[in-house]
Design a protein that fits this description.
The protein is α/β, with parallel strands linked by helices. It has six helices and seven strands. Helix 1 packs across helix 2.
Length: 143
């Protein structure tokens, strides 16, 4: 398969850890630390309504304790994250992420439901695998 024909789904981290809009900054930090992740889709029910990066959380973690206790995930999330279809070409998704200077994209299935998240780390893994001339399947073991 040519690299331009590889669907982003091939390198997407499936079933990502998600957050609710009402989580506190401390809860977000703990969730990210526990799962060793830097991007959290924010969901309302089963619909993605935003995205939070570790950078977003770090920015507000410097607030006073009283201020920090008032901030919730819904206050700091990006409300229109980059969202792509699972069948979108890997190359196009990576180019879009680079042009927008974002570190991740929400990947939806054909019904528009959250399938996974494609991050800059996933893009680097794809690059390594393609450069090595290996198959297109990358397992997410240990992630």
């Amino acid at each position: 398969m040519q690299p331009t024909q590889i669907p982003v789904e091939e390198f997407t981290t499936p079933d990502p850890v998600t957050a609710r809009e009402d989580l506190s900054i401390d809860e977000l930090q703990a969730l990210m630390k526990r799962h060793a992740i830097r991007h959290l889709p924010v969901v309302r029910g089963d619909v993605v309504v935003g995205l939070i990066s570790d950078r977003d959380v770090r920015l507000v973690s410097g607030l006073s304790l009283a201020e920090k206790l008032q901030v919730r995930a819904g206050d700091i999330m990006v409300t229109e994250p980059l969202t792509v279809a699972a069948s979108a070409p890997l190359q196009e998704v990576a180019l879009k992420m680079a042009s927008l200077k974002v570190g991740s994209a929400i990947v939806n299935d054909e019904d528009g439901r959250l399938l996974g998240i494609f991050t800059a780390v996933d893009a680097l893994n794809a690059l390594v695998e393609i450069a090595r001339g290996q198959g297109t399947r990358w397992t997410h073991a240990g992630r």
